[in-house]
Design a protein that fits this description.
The protein is mostly beta strands and about 350 residues long. It has a single domain, classed as Lipocalin. The chain is about 10% helix and about 55% strand. A 10-stranded antiparallel beta barrel has the order 2-3-7-8-10-11-12-13-14-15. The longest helix has 18 residues. It is elongated and about 65 Å long. The chain starts with a helix and ends with a helix.
Length: about 350
């Protein structure tokens, strides 16, 4: 056999091992395939766009921090084996009198195993207020009404692949999913790859109008359109106390190739290619028993879009409180065959 043939077979065997070697150390974590978990959720989400110019040295009064807040909501989730579905029931009204109204849409779908999983999402927010309004709105102290741009819109479509290196002893999903339960402290390096498209637009101009004169050529900046690809690494750990209490922390960074297009109200658009850091942080605490579980967690995605004239950061922040119970659930007659299927084994 020639060298190329041996190399090909070795790569094939390595790939097969990555796909199918899903052995778990049950002394470190458990996965429930025979339970139906019903979980009550309370959740909140927000999108934040801190921005500042780099033209003038005194930037305190020129900094803005646009924020859009989705209404706090309640719902429930059904999880069984590798399947899960979530339902929203009710949303609580926000402070529209002072912050204006935000229209939003959130959709997410994730699937995978303790070894690797894919998270996909689409988010759209329209209507932002500036948290820094007190720096330049003359009567803010008396009225409490923030500067608002009801037409400022953000849209984000994203797919994130995460690989867990120490997957036999560590289940990152224990902090965020009812189908896993970490019973012994463990940690792991993680690898990630992101693919996404983001856009930020406003027919009024993205910079708050009272501050626009400080932004030079970006005074009438109206849009940013960015497809991007990134690859990075991070770490995650579960600290377990008494097999029931769990603290999780996750932090990952990546370098991203961004293909940006800037548009303006008063001049032609221009394109540019940039390399910029992006990241993902997660914190969770839970009490997880064989039947009952309660958890609270926060997730933050952050990315940067700086250039020679402006600094712009995009942050998506979500938080959730879950209270759930695992019920015994008998397998349908077809499940033994499904679990032998190669597609199931990939996500098992």
């Amino acid at each position: 056999m020639n060298g190329k043939g041996g190399c090909f077979i070795s790569l094939f065997l390595l790939f097969a091992q990555i796909l199918y070697a899903q052995d778990r150390d049950s002394t470190y974590y458990l996965r429930y395939t025979d339970k139906l978990c019903i979980t009550f959720n309370e959740y909140g989400r927000s999108f934040n766009l801190p921005m500042d110019q780099k033209i003038f040295s005194d930037t305190f009064y020129s900094a803005s921090s646009y924020t859009a807040e989705a209404k706090t909501g309640i719902g429930f989730t059904l999880d069984w084996d590798i399947l899960g579905v979530a339902f929203g029931i009710y949303s609580f009204p926000g402070d529209e009198a002072h912050k204006g109204k935000t229209d939003y849409f959130n959709f997410s779908l994730s699937f995978g195993s303790a070894k690797y999983f894919l998270e996909t999402s689409y988010r759209r927010y329209t209507g932002f207020y500036d948290e820094n309004s007190g720096n330049y709105v003359a009567d803010f102290a008396q009225t409490g009404i923030y500067y608002q741009d009801p037409s400022l819109n953000t849209a984000v479509g994203q797919a994130r692949f995460i690989y867990v290196f120490q997957h036999k002893k560590f289940a990152i999903k224990s902090a965020y999913s009812s189908t896993y339960r970490q019973i012994k402290t463990s940690a792991s390096w993680i690898g990630l790859a992101n693919f996404y498209y983001k856009e930020f637009t406003s027919p009024n101009g993205i910079v708050p109008r009272p501050l626009s004169g400080l932004y030079g050529d970006y005074e009438n900046w109206s849009g940013l359109f960015v497809p991007g690809i990134s690859v990075g690494i991070g770490g995650s750990g579960n600290w377990v106390i008494g097999k029931k209490f769990l603290l999780n922390g996750t932090l990952a960074f990546a370098l991203e190739s961004q293909w940006r297009r800037y548009s303006f109200l008063d001049k032609p658009s221009f394109n540019g290619t940039y390399l910029s850091p992006v990241g993902d942080s997660r914190v969770a605490i839970s009490y997880n028993t064989p039947r009952f579980l309660i958890s609270a967690y926060s997730k933050t995605d952050f990315s940067f879009y700086n250039n020679h004239s402006i600094n712009l950061e995009a942050r998506f922040i979500s938080g959730e409180l879950d209270i759930g119970y695992r019920f015994n659930f008998k397998d349908p007659s077809f499940m033994p065959k499904v679990r032998k299927w190669w597609v199931y084994k990939i996500f098992d």
